[in-house]
């Protein structure tokens, strides 16, 4: 079943107009021309690839495929960039640690433009150690890492990582479980475990930075996956989503459960948040995605896929574009405003979704006018045009390229 809203195009067009500059500056996706004669424009993107077999993260320049550094870690990582793109978190849950990498790409906002600075990538001495660290979530200038093995949350700012004697705060949230914590101002939205430690999470609640509960638990069975868009967080549940909206003034966030039970078979467990427009894109079962518009009378638009989904990503610069790779090797361009797939092209050999969930399969990262796709079986990164979905070139990568993050953008430089 597909639900659409007649207000969607008008609402999103308005949000895009008012929010495009902020989103572009925040992601480093664009820079306006500068009238100062001593400054020129520079565009630079760098890829970071986690190997599936070797315990390394490789940094690779998108433009020419040059080696930008190889960083040895304890195990195959999940990679999460900071909102600024300056720092990359390499989460190694089974090894009980999170490594931090300076990506070497930084932006400085000057209002009408952003300056870009490009230096060498480097493995930072700061690590976040625990029992089984997992989800990394940033909000309100604070980074939270949830430890599944203890139920504790580690809190710090990006700037703390380069200070001498890095000592982040730790807050207990309850029993150990596969959970998450999203910072929202002076509060955190955290998952709530079931009494049975083997059972799925039961909901979400708000706590303060001392770990004290604020308000009641909001049902969100099996809560998994989150994203932020325009200060609103969305969380996936087995029966819908929960939206967390900032409270007025110093008030705590407001949690609202929205059911998806009338949409048919499927649930949301992975989410991406729009940057220049307020929306979310989530999975909906194995072979569909759902566009979510907070505040709409009809917030869900389910889009079926031709076969099962492997990975998907949003384009931070082309706000209406989302890219979805399916197990038949097809890459699909989804127009989130129209709520339909408008273009498809084969980009890899098929990768079946049968087997173990950790088996090496392609992952996507958007870098300006290109989509970088790891192809583990071929030992390549495939560089695809966002305009045509055609492969422009490949970058050979040692080992088995798997997880991938792209950082960079355009800015002025002296």
TrEMBL record:
Q: Which Gene3D superfamilies match?
A: YVTN repeat-like/Quinoprotein amine dehydrogenase
Keywords attached to this Swiss-Prot or TrEMBL record, sorted alphabetically, are:
Signal
| Recorded superkingdom | Bacteria
Q: Which residues form the signal peptide?
A: 1-31
Which InterPro entries does this UniProt record tie to the protein? Host-pathogen_enzymatic-act, Quino_amine_DH_bsu, WD40/YVTN_repeat-like_dom_sf
SUPFAM superfamilies for the chain: YVTN repeat-like/Quinoprotein amine dehydrogenase (SSF50969)
Q: What is this protein called?
A: 40-residue YVTN family beta-propeller repeat-containing protein
In its UniProt entry, the species of origin is given as Loktanella fryxellensis
């Amino acid at each position: 079943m597909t639900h659409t809203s007649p207000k969607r195009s008008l609402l999103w067009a308005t949000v895009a107009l008012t929010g495009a500059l902020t989103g572009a500056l925040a992601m480093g996706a664009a820079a306006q021309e500068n009238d100062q004669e001593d400054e020129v424009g520079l565009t630079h993107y760098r890829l970071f690839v986690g190997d599936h077999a070797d315990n390394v993260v490789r940094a690779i320049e998108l433009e020419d495929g040059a080696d930008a550094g190889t960083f040895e870690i304890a195990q195959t990582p999940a990679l999460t960039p900071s909102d600024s793109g300056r720092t990359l978190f390499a989460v190694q849950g089974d090894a009980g640690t999170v490594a931090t990498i300076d990506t070497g790409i930084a932006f400085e906002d000057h209002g009408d433009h952003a300056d870009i600075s490009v230096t060498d990538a480097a493995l930072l001495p700061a690590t976040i150690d625990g029992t089984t660290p997992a989800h990394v979530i940033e909000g309100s200038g604070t980074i939270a890492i949830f430890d599944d093995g203890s139920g504790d949350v580690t809190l710090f700012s990006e700037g703390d990582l380069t200070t001498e004697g890095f000592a982040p705060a730790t807050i207990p949230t309850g029993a150990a479980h596969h959970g998450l914590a999203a910072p929202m101002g002076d509060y955190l939205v955290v998952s709530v475990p079931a009494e049975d430690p083997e059972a799925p999470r039961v909901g979400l609640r708000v706590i303060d930075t001392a770990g004290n509960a604020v308000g009641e638990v909001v049902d969100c069975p099996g809560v998994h996956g989150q994203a932020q868009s325009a200060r609103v967080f969305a969380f996936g549940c087995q029966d819908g989503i929960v939206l967390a909206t900032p409270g007025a003034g110093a008030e705590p966030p407001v949690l609202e459960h929205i059911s998806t039970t009338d949409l048919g078979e499927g649930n949301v467990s992975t989410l991406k948040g729009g940057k220049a427009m307020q929306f979310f894109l989530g999975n909906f079962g194995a072979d569909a995605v759902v566009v979510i518009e907070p505040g709409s009378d009809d917030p869900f638009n389910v889009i079926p896929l031709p076969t099962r989904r492997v990975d998907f990503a949003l384009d931070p610069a082309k706000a209406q574009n989302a890219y979805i790779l399916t197990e038949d090797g097809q890459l699909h361009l989804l127009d989130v405003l129209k709520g339909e797939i408008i273009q498809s092209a084969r980009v890899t050999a098929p990768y079946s979704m049968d087997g173990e969930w950790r088996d090496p399969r392609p992952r996507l990262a958007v870098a300006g006018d290109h989509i970088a796709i790891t192809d583990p079986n071929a030992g390549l990164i495939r560089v695809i045009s966002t305009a045509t979905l055609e492969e422009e070139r490949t970058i050979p990568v040692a080992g088995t390229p798997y997880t991938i993050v792209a950082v960079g953008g355009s800015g002025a430089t002296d």
